[in-house]
Amino acid sequence: MPDRAATTYPAAAIEAMLAEVRFDPQGLVPAIAQQHDTGEVLMMAWMDRNAVVETMQTGRACYWSRSRKAPWRKGDTSGHIQTVVDFRVDCDGDTVLMLVDQTGVACHTGRHNCFFRAIRGGKLEEIAPVQIDMTKIGRTEY
Amino acid sequence: MPDRAATTYPAAAIEAMLAEVRFDPQGLVPAIAQQHDTGEVLMMAWMDRNAVVETMQTGRACYWSRSRKAPWRKGDTSGHIQTVVDFRVDCDGDTVLMLVDQTGVACHTGRHNCFFRAIRGGKLEEIAPVQIDMTKIGRTEY
Fold it and tell me: Which of A103, B26, B60, B101 is most buried, most CB within 10 Å of its CB?
């Protein structure tokens, strides 16, 4: 269970947000998920209009999966949901930032966030450990 | 002047990073800039291959401006450069995360970061103040 209650938004607020989001020609906007209390950048994924609406209505992060070409309610398979704390849009409306409370891990590899590859000693290294063996919770799914 | 020395990378490390970055059909990858010590998400912009190389070679964030269709060495006009602390790539290679030390402000509006619009009291509000009057430093430029 998430540690805190989800932030949900009334219809008028969702409309106000949608009016400021500039979706790209594919109808998508990049969405950054950040852990609200630590500042950790967890992942970046994409939202279509419906994903923005569902995320803001339910207080649970929903995306559009470009690989599966389908809505992606994060955590449906893994249980690793993201509870929305705040939903923000940037100056020119082409990126959104969600402060969330991550249940479990954000990354499908079982690491807490997706940005675990960096240069160390001149080579690309994995700088964060696998925290959860995703094969043990069913599928290596998001 | 930035508070800390830039992280720069040798050619082999840049090649190793480039081998993992999946540029989109336009040859671009989203790049998130995060203040290294506070965790503040400053902005999201786009890099082409040359921008990745220049950023990693020089230790200063460079992007591709989609609006101007040109390389964008952030801070050339404003002086608000981003000194690279760490350059990371995500699990599937389609987003990069830079930990940086921001000089001045990241946002062209004069706010410290670009994500200053959120719902408060059911309405879209500006939740961060303008810190620098960008018209006084020449242009309202990045």
Answer: B60
